[in-house]
Amino acid sequence: MKNLFATVLTYPAPSANYRGESELNRTVIQKVTDGRFDYPIFSPESMRNALREILAEYGLPCNRERLHPVSGKGKSDEGGEGDKQQLAVRYAKYPDPAAYIDDFFFGYLLAVKGKELDKLRKEKKDKYPLKRDSVLRMNLAKGLEPYRHNSVFTQSPKFADGNPWTPGGGDAAAKSGLLHRETCVTAFQYPFALSGNDCECRDEGCKHELPQKEEKAACKRQWTRKLLQAIGELNGVAGNHARSYFEMAPASIIIRLTDSLVAGYRTYCFKPKGLPDLIDDLVNGDYPGDEFYLGGELVKRDLPEDSQKKLKDQGVALERDPRKLLNIVATEFAGGA
Fold it and tell me: pLDDT (tens digit, 9 = 90+) per residue, 34-84?
């Protein structure tokens, strides 16, 4: 199987997602410096977590689930019974890439020692791998436009007397407060990659169909198809969706299927204005055109007709719908209908 390399560009929208540590009442967007400017970012971890939840919604077997805070008993900082509840993660079983799609694509690390390690040896024997690298390779989603020091102010209402509960934090939390959050308006671009060797199904008797959820065996080709479908529908990344709905699904996408072990092109190739330089390179024959697939707004609105004709002459596949393009590539990459 070939290797898949891709760059996704989202639609632009106002965003206050993926926040760092707050400064007093100011909610800070995380950023990375590129040259002279700071650009807002989303982490690959936040995107992988959203993909895991989407795959679970598809009914595919996932080992890990996120538990949100509830009102049950917890330990306070002072060591007594308290109300401190935190986000938590629960695994159904020890990681098993053959049984769970999230263990297969996103990897795991078991940081165990002592009695926990003895327990693991007893159940999984001595050859059980304690870690697995992510099969899905991703990098930061970086804003197309730099952060412009924009902020939005809102006001939280005073917590009136007579409510059935009192907020944590005492009188300060009950009072009206001015909420100050950094906001940006930009599209984001991010690369991802998959190795054909990792995604190949090596079961000679496999019919390359998705099994039912309760079955242990699973076809890695069909899991790969579902992963690419999830990337086409990526949403729910980095939280704060009560205030900032932002989709990470592709508005435009560039994909390369190649025998090469590297993408060979600048994976952060989209620009705030104008076409990516990769388009001219493809028109001029600098790359094998039949390895490239372009889809979405890039084809639908940005590429002039003469450029589209030249690209097609070079063997480049063009598709107006990015999700349809991902399905086409999934068939080429992983097989199946």
Answer: 999 999 999 999 999 999 999 999 999 999 988 877 776 655 544 444 444
Tell me the C-alpha distance between 54 and 235, whole Å: 8
Q: Which amino acid is at 45?
A: E
Contacts of 152 (CB under 8 A, 6+ apart): 16, 180, 181, 183
Q: Are 328 and 337 in contact (CB under 8 A)?
A: no
Distance, CA of 230 to CA of 201 (rounded, Å): 20
Tokens standing for 134?
A: 């992510």
What is the Cα–Cα distance from 196 to 207, expressed in whole angstroms? Answer: 18
Residue 187 Cα distances to 41, 126, 141, 192, 271, angstroms: 10, 48, 10, 17, 10
pLDDT of residue 135: 95
Q: pLDDT by residue (tens digit) across 112-134?
A: 899 999 999 998 988 899 999 99
The string of DSSP codes covering 151-194 is EEEEEEPP--TT-SS--TTTHHHHS-EEEEEE-EEE-EEEEEEE
Structure tokens, 287 = 């790359």
pLDDT at 83: 46
Residue 155: both structure tokens together:
């006001």
Residues 6 or more apart in contact with residue 47 via CB below 8 angstroms:
138, 141, 190, 234, 237, 248
The per-residue pLDDT for 214 is: 47
Q: What is the dihedral of CA 298, 184, 326, 320, to 10 degrees?
A: -30
Cβ distance 236 to 50 under 8 Å?
yes
User: Angle, to 10 degrees, between the axis of helix 322-334 and the axis of helix 220-232?
Assistant: 170
Residues 6+ apart with CB under 8 A from 37: 146, 147
Q: What is the pLDDT of residue 241?
A: 66
What are the tokens at 68?
A: 């949100």
Residue 180 backbone dihedrals phi, psi, to 5 degrees? -125, 110
Q: Which of 219, 248, 216, 218 is nearest to 232 (CA)?
A: 248
